[in-house]
Design brief:
mainly beta; YmcC-like fold; about 10% helix
């Protein structure tokens, strides 16, 4: 389950970097995330970090130019997972993603969000826009007016919070009808 959640986190972060107000994209940008103590407190995960960097280079795949992101999760060089992902924009601004160079493209998000919009996820799940003005309190800040996407994959409900001009600020898991922070942005 840990690897599935980390993969979801990384894919979600990659989606969160589209070129729009909810998803700013700047080559060379690195965002650092920490794991929430509600789920991982007192376990080896308390020192886990996830850093996601938009690389300076782009890559052409099947004649289409993609931004490349690299996500590094772990505690040190001997205990890290590194995932590279690809995404691009259609001419209408819709964010498209590929988990690998050879995977199928999926529509991640439309340029303009509406509550009820749905998107396919990488693992045959469905992602749905559930809120456009949510508030979430993380260990480092309280964010208001957030976009919230909810994904239900393999009987795991995940909510992803995005803040305008920042990107993804938190991912939560719904467990036993309680929303708990899985990861959160450490600093802007």
């Amino acid at each position: 389950m840990k690897k599935t959640l980390i993969a979801i986190l990384i894919l979600i972060w990659n989606y969160s970097n589209a070129q729009s107000s909810y998803f700013p994209l700047t080559k060379g940008t690195t965002l650092s995330y920490a794991f929430g103590s509600e789920i991982y407190g007192g376990t080896p995960y308390e020192n886990y970090k996830c850093e996601v960097t938009i690389l300076e280079n782009t890559e052409t795949i099947d004649g289409k130019e993609y931004f490349v992101s690299e996500s590094i999760t772990g505690t040190n060089k001997d205990n890290q997972t590194i995932i590279t992902s690809y995404f691009r924009y259609r001419t209408d601004g819709t964010l498209i993603s590929k988990a690998t160079k050879n995977s199928e493209e999926i529509v991640v998000m439309n340029t303009v969000q509406k509550v009820g919009d749905t998107y396919s996820s990488q693992n045959n799940g469905i992602t749905k826009v559930i809120d456009l003005s949510a508030t979430i309190k993380t260990p480092v800040s309280t964010y208001s007016d957030c976009l919230v996407l909810e994904t239900n994959e393999n009987q795991t409900i995940t909510r992803i919070y995005y803040k305008r001009n920042i990107g993804m600020i938190a991912t939560t898991l719904i467990k036993d009808d309680k929303e708990m922070i899985f990861i959160y942005l450490e600093k802007e």
